[in-house]
Amino acid sequence: MTEHTWGRVREELQQEMGRDAFNNWIKPLELIGHEDGVARFSVPTNFFGDWVARNYGDRIREGLTKGGCAVDRLDFTVSKAVRKQDDTAQRNGVGKVQAFSGNGAAKNDGPAEAELPGSKLDPRFTFDSFVVGKPNELAHAAARRVAEGGPVTFNPLFLYGGVGLGKTHLMHAIAWEIRRREPGARVLYLSAEQFMYRFVQSLRFKDMIGFKEMFRSVDVLMVDDVQFIAGKESTQDEFFHTFNALVDQNKQIVISADRAPGEIDGLEDRIKSRLQWGLVVDLHPTDYELRLGILQSKAEAQLKYYPDVRLADGVLEFLAHRISTNVRVLEGALTRLFAFASLVGREVTLEVAQECLADILRASDRKVTIDEIIRKVADHYNLRLSDMLSPRRARSVARPRQVAMFLSKMLTSKSLPEIGRRFGGRDHTTVIHAVRKIEELKAVDSQIAEDVELLRRMLEA
Ligand code: ADP
Ligand code: MG
Q1: What would the pLDDT profile of 366-390 be if each residue is shown by its tens digit?
Q2: Percent of the chain at pLDDT above 90?
């Protein structure tokens, strides 16, 4: 029972914390008992237990309690088996990094290694699979430049942007590319969280020299999500020294964060300013075109696994319209759609997609109303509201009406009959016809395409 609940809490935590933090702090926890409101875990070290208690204790307690296993206290015991591995870790030094390129493969030379966190490079995150559009073209170009090697022109390269916009993807792509071009180069990629973990470990094992040597011997250092070290003073200090040492040696540094350097609260001013010495580029929120491009490329990839799945025209466009800027959400939607389609063996129509993705669509609903759409479209075409709802069929009225129906379908979660009703009590087949018509026209009539795009932007703004 508790095991089961713990499993679920772990899953939630993984979602909340992200893979790196989860692997570092939660994965090594082992639930060894639960009685009288005390949940007991074995941990690799005391430090580890303290850290988890301080940072995640409340969350774990709540999660277990909510799941039906009332817990008011957590107890962390250092387990013997794990302690032995820890000793091995100490002997080997903490300076091993799994994402170390060099001889191609990640180093992995002992059981202790498995316990050490390391950032693996995701084989899917390459330049080839990165779709370039307006919002990310600068970041992409800068990443390319760094990956090409040659003289270091900007140091560091600082990439920033919101969640799921491709920062990690670009960093991995740089690492893969350098690894491919120069198999001997020492490229170190890790999250800021891991940087801190290693730093703290080396303090604990009194191996600061090993730590410093390891970090100062790389050719390219990439630290992902550097906002994580905000407020963590000694880690920042060490980061600053490492950073300076590498810059002095003319070694390339690539940093990412969710915000611009100047906006990271709790980051020392000297670090903020140092981070701005190089090139700071941001990944903008995705726009419709980029989302569509990404969807097309990912759909192609999915078709390799699900060759029988058929997507109706307009489905990808619909998703690109409706799903938020976070590419991860977009990917999730597509994956689900393919899995669903292959299970039920049906073509994925707009309706199927809406049904299958209802929760995701609701979550990223931009709350545009049909009334707003009708008003904006009428405005745009200089019509009266009543024209939009009237039975008149003259092209000058019918076309804008169709545009409004199309936008209602694309931008809201309302069903076809509901949309029909709001347009002066029309039938749902009229709405279907309108949607198809505008889709066709968009492809051949640039004026219509422009109108629709403009209206969409205004409505979503
Ligand atoms: P971040 O690190 O900025 O939070 P990630 O790099 O982890 O975001 O990207 C989230 C997901 O979206 C990944 O699966 C990544 O491959 C995908 N992704 C983001 N941007 C693009 C893009 N331009 N082309 C292809 N895939 C992308
Ligand atoms: Mg990331």
Answers
A1: 678 899 999 999 999 999 999 999 9
A2: 52
Please check whether residues 39 and 107 belong to one and the same domain. no
Distance (angstroms) between ligand 2 centre and the Cα of 172 equals: 10
Q: Are residues 212 and 299 in the same domain?
A: no
State the residue range of the domain holding 7: 2-78
Residues 195 and 219 in one domain: yes
Q: Is residue 91 part of a domain?
A: no
Which of 327, 330, 331 has the most ligand 1 atoms within 8 A of CB, as the residue to mutate?
A: 327
Task: Return the ligand number nearest the Cα of 224.
Answer: 2
Q: Where are the alpha helices (DSSP H) in 345-381?
A: 350-356, 358-363, 370-380
How far is the C-alpha of 150 from the C-alpha of 30, rounded, in Å? Answer: 47
Q: Is 366 helix (H, G, I), strand (E, B) or coil?
A: coil
Q: What is the pTM of this model?
A: 0.64
> What is the pLDDT at residue 98?
38
Phi and psi at residue 29, in whole multiples of 5°? -75, 135
Q: Which residue has the higher pLDDT, 158 or 24?
A: 158
DSSP, res 5: H
pLDDT in tens, 344-360: 888 899 989 998 998 88
Ligand 1 contact, 327 CB (< 6 A) = yes
The reply to whether 142 and 31 lie within a common domain is: no
- Cα separation, 296 vs 198, in Å, equals 40
- State the Cα–Cα distance between residues 273 and 262, nearest whole angstrom: 8
Containing 253, the helix (H) or strand (E) segment is strand 252-257
Picking from 230, 301, 235, the residue whose alpha carbon sits closest to that of residue 266 is 230
Q: What is the CATH number of the domain that holds 52?
A: 3.30.300.180
Q: Measure 229 CA to ligand 1 centroid, in angstroms.
A: 22
Given 305, 336, 363, the domain boundary residue is: 363
Burial class from Cβ neighbours inside 10 Å (0-12, 13-18, 19+) for residue 40 reads middle
- 408: nearest Cα among 381, 375, 383, 441: 375
